[in-house]
Amino acid sequence: MSDYIMYQLPFPEPATFVGFAAWSPSVPLGGWVTQRVLELVYTAWDIQPFARDVGHSSPPFLWQPERRFLLCCELDAAFFHVYGIERKDVDYIMDSFHLVRRDDEKAHGEYRTKRVILEIYDEMTEAMKTGRPYQTRLDPPPADPRVAHRAVMAHP
After folding, report:
1. Is 96 exposed, middle or buried (0-12, 13-18, 19+ CB in 10 A)?
2. Cα gap 61→117, rounded to integer Å
3. pLDDT per residue as tens digits for the range 97-131
4. Per the domain annotation, does 156 fall within a domain?
5. CA angle 30, 138, 120 (to 5 degrees)
6. In 10 A of CB 78, how many CB atoms?
7. Could you give the number of structural domains in the chain?
């Protein structure tokens, strides 16, 4: 890809991820994101090299649909903040995902994904206003070894 195209893409500056997450001021944004991405991606032993590259040594994480949903919602809300998108615009953007809305309404009787992303977005906004860190809804927190498979056999 040419430099010309790269400069036009809406990527946050790499330094953004070195700084602290505005909603969790004692946690570097890169680490906050990595914990969530790690748990979403590292669900099989063949991804272990990636896990090791980000400093994780536990077995792969269990595939738990509700945890995965919340991890994705936290990441979505966080990136809306990273890009400086205001709440009314988040609401509008979420309405553009017609298939997600349709599937959510069929499965849950509401547009659950939008509701939860907006709730988490609001919780992060409140954390930024008050200086109290955002509290994840996940228990245990993201990338916690307690939500990983048990190590029953040695893997390379």
Report:
1. exposed
2. 23
3. 999 999 999 999 999 999 999 999 999 999 999 99
4. no
5. 70
6. 23
7. 1
